[in-house]
Design goal:
This protein has 297 residues and is an alpha/beta fold. It has 2 domains: 2-105 and 282-296, Nucleotidyltransferase, domain 5 (2-Layer Sandwich), CATH 3.30.420.40; 119-277, Nucleotidyltransferase, domain 5, CATH 3.30.420. Helices cover 35% and strands 20% of the residues. It has 9 helices and 12 strands. It has a 5-stranded mixed beta sheet with strand order 3-2-1-4-7.
């Protein structure tokens, strides 16, 4: 049995997968972010205990986190759950739970899940994309997650797309994340005269209803998606691209968005499928469990 934990900023979700990947038990609790690092550790410990009590056995554990573990220090970095940054999360949880653990970025967990038994299961090289509050990604080669020497594999969201673009929390300007995330789409719409109260999903709806300002924002969004994704295609040339996150529900990404990628990619034809995820919000927690292969347990 394998437990996956998705350690999010507002909730911590746990799932138990059987040998065949079938989900046996799921539980969700709030993330006590305001109570600090130690409170989060103990909430994870409590959740694992409840899951193991529920199935009556001890399991391997994989954890998906915002951010990643520094290859230099072993501490967390780049997490928007800021109390994790600089902390030895892996070491502390292994001590608390009395067993070895595996930890990966949540976008990597999403990609692993979709590559193993989701939309990318029939493909060798899978590039998984998260487009929601932020923009992240992951790479799986023939069923094996590629995190990279510095645990930066797939982090296309912090490639600079427009030098004069919006400020990014990473310290750069015009990162992909600032332009084609949900907040990025909304900010662009507001900057061009749109209602500042509207969110990305509202803009998508308005565009479908024929609103000119919203449609112009969507066209800029598709063009930026095309330029950003073409860079990935030119370097990695994946067998498939799988989209996740809230913006993966924008159906036009799979037609107009794909056409923009084809326009900018360095090739006279573009054969790469761009597919919507199968497991949805469950991909991250399933992928965390799948950091352990069933034959390793």
């Amino acid at each position: 049995m394998r437990i996956g934990i998705d350690l999010g900023g507002t909730k911590i979700e746990g799932v138990v997968l059987g040998h065949d990947g079938h989900e046996l038990l799921r539980k969700r609790v709030d993330t006590p972010q305001s109570d600090g690092y130690q409170a989060i550790l103990h909430r994870v410990e409590q959740l694992v205990g409840e899951l193991e009590t529920g199935i009556g056995m001890t399991c391997s554990i994989g954890i998906g986190t915002p951010g990643a573990i520094s290859a230099l220090t072993g501490a967390m970095k780049n997490s928007n759950t800021v109390c994790l940054n600089g902390r030895p999360l892996l070491e502390d949880l292994q001590t608390l739970l009395h067993r070895p653990l595996r930890i990966a970025n949540d976008a990597n967990c999403f990609t692993l899940s979709e590559a193993l038994d989701g939309a990318g299961k029939d493909y060798g090289v899978v590039f998984g994309v998260i487009m929601g509050t932020g923009v992240g990604g992951g790479i799986v080669f023939n069923g094996q997650l590629h995190q990279g020497q510095q645990h930066l594999g797939g982090e296309w969201g912090h490639n600079i797309l427009e030098l004069d673009g919006p400020d990014c929390y990473c310290g750069q300007k015009g990162c992909v994340e600032t332009l084609i995330s949900g907040p990025g789409l909304a900010t662009d719409f507001h900057r061009h005269g749109g209602d500042s109260a509207l969110l990305a999903r509202d803009i998508v709806t308005l565009a479908a209803q024929g609103d000119a300002l919203a449609e112009a924002a969507m066209q800029r969004f598709f063009d930026r998606f095309g330029r950003a994704m073409a860079t990935v295609v030119n370097i990695l040339d994946p067998d498939v691209i799988v989209l996740g996150g809230g913006l993966s529900n924008v159906e036009r990404l799979y037609s107009e968005g794909r056409e923009r990628v084809a326009h900018y990619a360095f090739n006279d034809e573009f054969m790469t499928p761009i597919l919507k995820n199968i497991h949805g919000d469950s991909s991250g927690v399933r992928g965390a469990a799948q950091l352990w292969r069933s034959d390793e347990i």
